[in-house]
Amino acid sequence: MKRERVFVVGASAGGLEPLQRLIGGLPGDFPAAVLVVLHLRADSSSALPAILGRAGRLPADRAEDGQPIEPGRVYVAPPDVHLVVRPGELGLVHGPTENGHRPAIDPLFRSAARVYGRGVVGIVLSGALDDGTAGLAAVKAAGGIAVVQSPADALYPAMPRSAMRRVDVDFVAPSSELPPLLVRLAGTHAPDDLPASATDPSPDPVEEALVPDQPPTGTTDGRVSGFSCPDCNGALWETHEGGVTKYRCRVGHAWTEAGLLLQQGDSLEVALWTALRVIGERAELAEKIRERAIARGHRHAAKLFDERLEEFGHDARVLRDVLGRPELAAVEERLAVLGQLGGEEEALSHADDPPGAEASR
């Protein structure tokens, strides 16, 4: 007995156009469900289902919690919730963010791999950093098929390059060639030996964090990293998912190395501006106390506050100097660019590649 396949697609920066090409090129009788995560702002109002519905012949809908998975339909993750797969149905979870994203790609890929095993086809499209790599590795580990958009065809090639570097992908193709590839894969059926998790699925980390009887200690698997979570300031444990190093806190927030590095830069700037604000407020308060001390004739106390005001002024000048250094902004900008390209070595090695240089395997 054979089973139909399920297709899971992850995209981030620059991913809308290849998504439109992918969905737009599928026939109206496509015999499998397509589940889509595009990284969105939490406060956005996504028009993605309507955009994808107009792009092709398959009906595209905003995913609903508990909705049955039916072939020939496109299900899109809504903003600010993770889209996960449960046996025969979809799940929406307002769980901890992954690499700062909700919805995130990895929870969809992990859960689909756990439930459908060799019936899953995972597709990673354009995006910055390395989101989707660990999820695609889970798809491969479960016996599924891994597909990646050609980096030369992607506006932001980091996500495809990261996946190709760490996962034994089955196919690499430009977005224009993905629809016929998916049609071909949909015509091949996966063996009907469901993974054990399909009948007794263990919760995904994003769902496990919300289990009512979860112990207060939370999940602390892995090795203590010495780093703190940018989302909740809790300790991070170092884990490894499909060859990707991840840092996960006890409540479930997860970060890849590249994501954590860039987020730390943002957190550092916020911390410096906060410190400058606090110094300014302390200086203003110290000045008021000094003026009252002078008015009361307490000259010794006023002199002490004079010294403190000098220290506050010095500290404020140092912070303004640090925050104003253009070379610091240039370093952060360079890190962001490397995150978009997939790393300096990768960027240089592919700098002269013509479009479509990567051949499908």
pLDDT averaged over residues: 83
CATH architecture annotation name of the largest domain = 3-Layer(aba) Sandwich
Main sheet properties:
7 strands, parallel
Beta-strand fraction estimate = 15-25%
Total helical elements: 12
- Rg over CA atoms: 25 Å
Shape: elongated
Multimeric state: single chain
Q: Distance between the terminal alpha carbons, to the nearest Å?
A: 28 Å
Name the strands of the widest sheet in spatial order: 4-5-3-2-8-9-10
User: From the helix content, strand content and strand pairing, which structural class follows?
Assistant: alpha/beta
How would you describe what is shown here?
By secondary structure, the chain is an alpha/beta fold. It folds into two domains: 2-206, Rossmann fold (3-Layer(aba) Sandwich), CATH 3.40.50; 216-324, no CATH class. It contains twelve helices and 15 strands. It has helices spanning 16-24, 48-55, 105-116, 133-141, 158-166, 178-186, 196-199, 205-208, 257-295, 299-324, 326-341, 344-349, and strands spanning 2-3, 6-11, 33-38, 60-62, 74-76, 82-86, 89-93, 120-124, 145-149, 171-173, 190-191, 223-228, 235-241, 244-249, 254-256. The strands form four sheets. Strands 4-5-3-2-8-9-10 form a seven-stranded parallel β-sheet, with helices on both faces. Strands 12-13-14-15 form a four-stranded antiparallel β-sheet. The longest helix has 39 residues, at 257-295. The two termini are 28 Å apart. The relative contact order is 0.13.
Key phrases:
Rossmann fold; alpha/beta; 361 residues; 12 helices
